[in-house]
Design a protein that fits this description.
mainly alpha
Length: 193
């Protein structure tokens, strides 16, 4: 690998750390119905607003020894783990987009892969903690996937994206029908008369 290839790999890893920081916050906020935009990040224990120095991925956790700067409450390790996992995922996606660092990067493929990896990690973290996947995250995944297909990023065509979304929806409906004993999208006949 050349210096330029090393620098690009380091850049996508760092980009992954920052995206991972956002995913960590989103994985906490979305299931609790808190906006991912506002209010700004704060300590869950003392509610003190976090400054820029408190939000540097991995480094802030290490420098603060895993504790809030204001009240000393422990910071969950989940944030640093999500940041590191996202960085590693981005580096892996970059390796795939450069065919093992041996070719010019396929940036559209990298964007598609990084988006998918981020979304799947977010869904996995939420599912592990809450045993459910919020509709907003699923809808965002469908929009991102279809948008990437329309842009020609990756190997999925718009038709394949629609087929995949329809099949995924059908699988969920069938599974819920089996578990619940009725279709979750069935219309009550009393409501239609």
């Amino acid at each position: 690998m050349t210096i330029r290839e090393h620098a690009a790999a380091a850049f996508v890893f760092l980009l992954g750390l920052f995206i991972g920081s956002f995913l960590g916050a989103a994985s906490y906020r979305i299931p609790r119905g808190i906006s991912i935009v506002w209010p700004p990040s704060a300590c869950p224990a003392c509610r003190a607003r976090l400054g820029a120095a408190d939000l540097i991925p991995v480094a802030s956790y290490w420098l603060l020894r895993g504790r809030c700067r204001h009240c000393g409450a422990p910071i969950s390790k989940r944030y640093v783990v999500i940041e590191l996992l996202t960085g590693v995922l981005f580096a892996g996606v970059y390796a795939a987009a450069t065919r093992g660092f041996g070719a010019a990067p396929d940036w559209a493929g990298f964007g598609a892969g990084a988006s998918l990896a981020s979304l799947l990690l977010l869904m996995a973290v939420i599912d592990l903690e809450h045993m459910r996947l919020p509709d907003t995250v699923n809808a965002a995944g469908a929009v991102i996937g279809f948008g990437l297909a329309l842009l020609g990023a990756g190997v999925v065509t718009p038709a394949h994206a629609l087929y995949g979304a329809a099949l995924g929806f059908l699988v969920v409906v069938v599974c819920e029908s089996i578990v619940l004993g009725h279709s979750p999208i069935a219309v009550d006949r009393a409501d239609t008369n």
